[in-house]
Design a protein that fits this description.
heterodimer; A: mainly alpha; 3 domains; 28 helices; B: mainly alpha; 2 domains; two-stranded antiparallel sheet; 2 strands
């Protein structure tokens, strides 16, 4: 029974192998159908596995595939482990992944056969690595998935490789992720050196057992070591999940095909950073400083991305910034110790953000590659299925009551508030106003009003976007319905292969939140109770470590803060909390409605007011349009200096100048020491090198023979 | 006899090639000569695999030993054997030589007979270096390696081949001379201590030298080896040699010959002079870390593909040297593994560059672009080799780098942190190069209609890529036989005291410094 865990990543991997090696010779229906079939099968096996896990006590399944890395005391087996946390993740990855595969069948239909197979092979490979990432039971196995999904992201962002911007974006994504991975690797090393293990369960148990030791690790206290280790891991998480200061790659990643944006850059891969923290909740709980950093970075990212999202005109970029912003919420939750709430939002976000991306893909598909909101408008009557499903997604993300996003976002805000982080909570609330506003600005601009074709001519003098954008469309070999001409007439709504995933995801966006109805609304918050064991030390481990000679007192002290930080449902004083919670809920509902209202005012009724505002606050507007100039800053402060240093300084300076200069210098010294050698000063590097070595040989030879 | 058979099989093949090639330059005999040479190298590879199969992975001792008296007056013997450290380097040599021969199949037409002869003779010399237990024998093979390589670069190289060949021979010869002096000095010291000269490495391991002597002997050996590696700042011969060498020469040079340097450090310099080794380790490690970053940064801005790969070797070999300096099990294990990885992945990169150069007769990155649309299979192979080179987990490079970083981290977290920046930089220079060559649209008309992989090129890329993946997925298969020998060498260098002598602030210091090293550190040398 347990080996079926192995099937979950292996099924998509098999799909990858077939499409990669013989895909070119397969028809589209076979290669696409196979890719979907393996994903659906993986979903089926995932459901079965989770079902099996629910019956196990404790709730976890393990499959050990033997030793992978072994050297001295480092013993890393290849182990997969299913527990409640990874259960949520595999269901999201295979479930939503299947829907996006099915959608891709329609979306990518215009590609030639070989490209079509290449696309699906990458998509399957991605799913496989993502499943290894979430099922891996120790750091190195997780890291295999971690870098693997990064590779697939690189390949899929640059899928249309003839486009320079796509190839650049893919490279940027990989390199920024590598910066994060530096943190991941160093964190791993520090953890192994400290705790002698890389297995998640071992590390959690040992961290808890040793947390109270004041100088357990030489000069550093246990807490200091864990703080450094978790900060390093968080650097990795920030890279993968596009948090400040490593957020710059995600908006560019929109160069990839839209289903890729939905799967990798919204629903699954970018949430891996959040998952990493959830996976190591015990460790992070012992590092309060790191948690504070996580929460601060999360909320800052949420706010920053939300403000940028307000002014972007590319439909996918708005969604990309929205994703960055929502990921910020998840990190906020992790940072205040509300791990379950963060994962809950991860799970609901996967539904509505995948839906929104796929919906935007349907729009782009219908408009022959058009992505500029200013050239849309009035699409509601042409694309009814797309419109209604998109609207549901927008309502869900805006936090309108009784849809999925409402429950999860409110849980985060409530936990932030109730744990005393009033300031963070306030920014979170402001961000949720921004969320509703930019989301409905998008809805209104794209679907409502009248169709605008060249509305941007002269309207937005300070924008460079349109020019760039037109270049995009022209260079884009994208889902080119334009090839058939006449895209302005007879817009057609999504074909069935695209419509069905939209509808399923729309239903999901409505109902997904009901697994986490809070107690204040008479629910039972099932998801929190379900996830809780994953954020604690395995029950049998605690005993094991107490028995293994650690003093029971330190062990109790060690686990205590963790229980505070990951509050279980029982630890609340119900009545007062519920009143607060209800009040906060009322407030957020009001904010969602207000945000929609603001968007309606500026995007539907008074578009001139928006322009006036942009003129009035010209500097701010430009700042937002240019994404706070972070890319430019990095280019000027990091990229260019390194290039200059490497070319002028190291290569031409040190290699050609300094090292050869030293050779000359030593040659000179030898020469002065011996008149006979003077003739060797011939100006050829060869001779200098020879005299250098002769000199060294003589000196060393003298000493060697003296003894 | 088996081991001698394997070592001299390529030389026998080389002589056979000379006979079969006939007198003078006979183009009609080219196919025969090529086939014979390939057959000889394949039989050798099969021999090395058989030896691996027969190897006892649980033992740290030399196996398949052969010992004959050679010059008894000087204590020189023909003494060879294989242990966990040399085993897989021998297999790697066997693996890469047929690939090198294949790589030159269509590009080398100038006296193929001599070319094949030199490649095979080179293989015997390299195998000899790895199997020698007697230091004199070691030196003979070490110098024998230089001669065929000198001719390979000087005769079959590109435009500035003569300059590169001379630079190569001068640099490495200087190191060799130094090493010869040290070897003789060591035998003399043995004679002073026991009354009989000995070049037997096992005897010499038991020799106790004064710290001062160790100091100078260590320097002599190490200088010879770090030039070969090459360690920053002794690396300037490498880019020239690589750029001018024919593809086959580059594959062998990068794949095997550079490892002779790190092998020498691990086999001779460190365990023979442990006190000096521990004293110098931090200094060498600093050079290694500088080399990692420096090589990567300089690689990034190279306009020439071969130079880029050459500088990337400086960076990768920096990792190997850092792992050796850490002198703990993971560091040394990782370093040894990384030697194999580098052979596979950089060998693969040179094959790729060779294929481009065969087609376009240029190696400038700017001349290419958009190849993915023209030759997708080639680009797929290129991608896999690139991923192996940038140490993607699941490929071979990750295993080595991870272990090295772990070993280094246990020793000195600062070194490890700086070295780990190489993880970022390798992605930068490799992916940037990959993108400029393969992505975008085809801008140069000469790149249109380039043919995709030929069957011969498949025969080179499939084993290379397969090896890169296998070594990443099941590294234990390769690491198990190494471990006993690695553990022994670490014990030999660090001494066997389990607990540390003086109180280091952090318990992660696993090395226990010998008292002599402490004295050296306090400057009580002179």
């Amino acid at each position: 029974m347990v080996t079926m865990l192995l099937l979950i990543p292996l099924l998509p991997f098999a799909g990858f192998l077939v499409n990669a090696f013989v895909g070119k010779r397969l028809s589209k229906s076979v290669s696409g159908g196979l890719a979907c079939a393996v994903m659906l099968a993986a979903f089926g096996v995932s459901v079965l596995s989770v079902w099996t896990m629910l019956g196990a006590e404790p709730r976890a399944l393990r499959v050990d595939l033997g030793m992978w890395l072994a050297s001295g005391d480092l013993q890393v087996p290849f182990v997969l482990r299913l527990d409640p946390l990874s259960a949520v993740m595999i269901l999201v990855v295979t479930g939503i992944g299947s829907l996006i595969h099915i959608y891709s069948v329609g979306y990518m239909h215009e590609e030639p056969d070989s490209e079509y197979a290449r696309y699906f092979s990458y998509l399957n490979l991605f799913a496989s690595f993502m499943l290894i990432l979430v099922l891996g039971a120790n750091f190195p196995v997780m890291f295999v998935g971690w870098e693997g999904v990064g590779l697939c992201s690189y390949l899929l962002i640059g899928f249309w490789f003839t486009k320079q911007s796509a190839a650049d974006a893919g490279k940027k994504a990989f390199i920024v992720n590598r910066i994060g991975n530096l943190g991941f690797i160093l964190g791993m090393l520090l953890i192994f050196v400290t705790f002698g293990s890389l297995d998640f369960q071992d590390v959690a148990a040992r961290a808890a057992a040793r947390a109270a030791e004041p100088a357990a690790f030489g000069m550093l206290s246990a807490e200091a070591v864990m703080t450094i280790a978790t900060l390093l891991l968080f650097l990795g998480a920030a890279g993968k999940s596009a948090q400040i200061p490593l957020h710059v790659w995600l908006p560019d990643a929109m160069e990839g095909p839209t289903p890729v944006s939905a799967l990798i850059h919204a629903a699954t891969m970018v949430t891996a950073g959040v998952y990493l923290i959830g996976r190591n909740a015990v460790l992070f709980s012992h590092a309060p400083f790191t948690l504070a950093v996580v929460a601060a970075i999360g909320v800052a990212t949420a706010l920053m991305a939300g403000t940028i999202g307000l002014v972007q005109n590319d439909i996918k970029r708005v969604l990309a910034y929205s994703t960055v912003s929502q990921l910020g919420y998840m990190f906020l939750a992790m940072g205040v110790g509300a791990y379950a709430a963060g994962i809950f939002h991860l799970y609901t976000h996967a539904f509505f953000k995948a839906l929104l991306f796929l919906g935007s893909g349907a729009v782009i598909h219908a408009l022959a590659g058009e992505q500029d909101l200013r050239n849309m408008g009035g699409l509601k009557k042409h694309l009814p299925i797309t419109y209604w499903t998109f609207l549901i997604g927008a309502l869900a993300i805006a936090g309108v009551p009784l849809l999925s996003g409402f429950f999860s976002k409110d849980e985060i805000l409530f936990r932030t508030f109730s744990s005393g982080h009033t300031f963070l909570w306030l920014i979170g609330v402001i961000t949720s106003l921004l969320t509703a506003t930019y989301m409905f600005r998008l809805v209104f601009l794209a679907f409502h009003g009248e169709r605008r074709h060249d509305a941007h001519d002269g309207d937005h003098p300070e924008e460079e976007e349109p020019v760039r954008h037109i270049a995009h469309v022209m260079a884009s070999p994208a889902p080119a319905h334009g090839a058939h001409g006449g895209h302005r007439h007879g817009l057609h709504d999504a074909p069935p292969s695209m419509a069905i995933p939209l509808i399923v995801l729309a239903i999901g966006s409505i109902v997904a939140g009901y697994v986490g109805v809070p107690h204040a609304l008479g629910g039972a918050n099932h998801i929190e109770t379900f996830l809780e064991p994953s954020f604690e030390i395995e029950a049998n481990r605690e005993r094991e470590f107490t028995a293994a000679g650690f003093s029971p007192i330190s062990s109790i002290q060690a686990t205590a803060p963790q229980h505070e930080r990951a509050p279980t449902t029982e630890t609340h004083a119900p009545a007062a909390d519920e009143r607060t919670e209800l009040m906060l809920m009322g407030l957020s509902s009001g904010i969602a409605v207000a945000g929609i209202g603001i968007a309606a005012y500026f995007s539907l009724r008074r578009r001139d007011a928006a322009d006036a505002l942009a003129h009035r606050f010209h500097g701010l507007y430009r700042l937002l349009c240019n994404k706070y100039y972070v890319d430019e800053l990095y280019e000027a402060v990091i990229v260019q200096p390194i290039k200059l240093l490497s070319t002028g300084g190291l290569w031409k300076g040190v290699d050609a100048g300094f090292i050869d200069g030293t050779v000359n210098g030593v040659g000179l010294t030898v020469r002065t020491g011996s008149g006979a050698l003077r003739r060797l000063q011939t100006g050829s590097i060869r001779t200098y090198a020879a005299s250098l070595f002769l000199g060294v040989v003589l000196i060393l030879g003298y000493y060697l023979l003296r003894y | 006899m088996m081991l001698s058979l394997i070592v001299f099989l390529p030389l026998a093949g080389a002589l056979l090639v000379l006979i079969a090639g006939g007198r003078g330059d006979r183009p009609d005999r080219e196919p025969l000569v090529r086939t014979l040479a390939l057959a000889a190298s394949l039989v050798t590879f099969a021999g090395t695999l058989y030896m691996w199969y027969r190897f006892d992975p649980t033992s740290a001792a030399y196996q398949f030993e052969e010992r004959y008296s050679w010059m008894p007056n000087f204590g020189i013997q023909y003494y060879i054997g294989v242990d966990g450290i040399s085993l897989l380097l021998i297999v790697l040599t066997g693996f890469l030589t047929p690939l090198a021969l294949l790589s030159s199949w269509e590009s080398v037409h100038k006296s193929v007979k001599a070319f094949s002869f030199f490649i095979l003779a080179l293989e015997t010399a390299m195998l000899g270096v790895f199997v020698s237990i007697d230091l004199f024998l070691f030196y003979v093979f070490w110098d024998a390696v230089l001669i065929p390589m000198y001719f390979l670069i000087g005769v079959w190289g590109y435009e500035r081949r003569v300059y590169a060949a001379i630079k190569f021979i001068l640099y490495t010869m200087a190191g060799s001379v130094l090493m010869l002096l040290a070897i003789i000095g060591l035998a003399a010291a043995h004679s002073t201590a026991t009354g009989a000269a000995s070049f037997n490495l096992i005897d010499l391991y038991g020799l106790t030298l004064s710290p001062r002597k160790e100091f100078w002997f260590f320097l002599a050996f190490t200088l010879a080896f770090v030039i070969k590696v090459p360690l920053f700042p002794f690396h300037t011969w490498l880019p020239d040699a690589h750029v001018e060498a024919p593809t086959a020469g580059s594959i062998i040079l990068a794949g095997v010959m550079l490892k002779m340097g790190t092998y020498g450090l691990l086999r001779l310099a460190f365990p023979l002079f442990p006190t000096a080794a521990l004293y110098f380790a931090p200094i060498i490690a600093v050079l290694a870390v500088v080399g990692i970053t420096y090589g990567a940064l300089v690689a990034m801005v190279q306009p020439d593909l071969k130079k880029l790969v050459a500088y990337s070797s400086v960076s990768h070999l920096g990792f190997v040297v850092l792992g050796l300096c850490a002198m703990n099990v993971q560091g040394v294990h990782g370093a040894l593994y990384q030697m194999l990885n580098h052979g596979v992945s950089t060998g693969g990169l040179f094959m790729i560059v060779g294929m481009l150069s065969d087609r376009r007769h240029t190696r400038l990155i700017a001349e290419f672009g958009g190849l993915e649309a023209v030759m997708p299979k080639f680009v797929a192979a290129f991608l896999l080799v690139t991923l192996s080179s940038i140490a993607l987990p699941g490929m071979n490079g990750f295993v080595g780098e991870f272990l090295i970083l772990l070993g280094a981290f246990r020793w000195n977290a600062t070194f490890a942190t700086f070295a780990a920046s190489g993880v970022i930089l390798s992605a930068v220079y490799m992916l940037w190069m990959f993108q400029r060559v393969n992505y975008g649209s085809v801008t140069n008309d000469k790149n249109r209609g380039l043919r995709d992989l030929t069957p011969r090129e498949w025969a080179m890329m499939v084993p290379t890529v397969a090896m890169a993946v296998i070594m990443g997925v099941v590294p234990v298969v390769f690491m198990r036989p190494m471990e006993p020998a690695v553990t022994r060498v670490v014990e030999r260098v660090t001494g066997r005291q389990p607990a540390q002598v003086n109180a280091h602030p952090l318990p992660r210091e696993t090395r226990s410094p010998r008292p002599e090293a402490q004295r050296l550190r306090r400057g009580e040398v002179r």
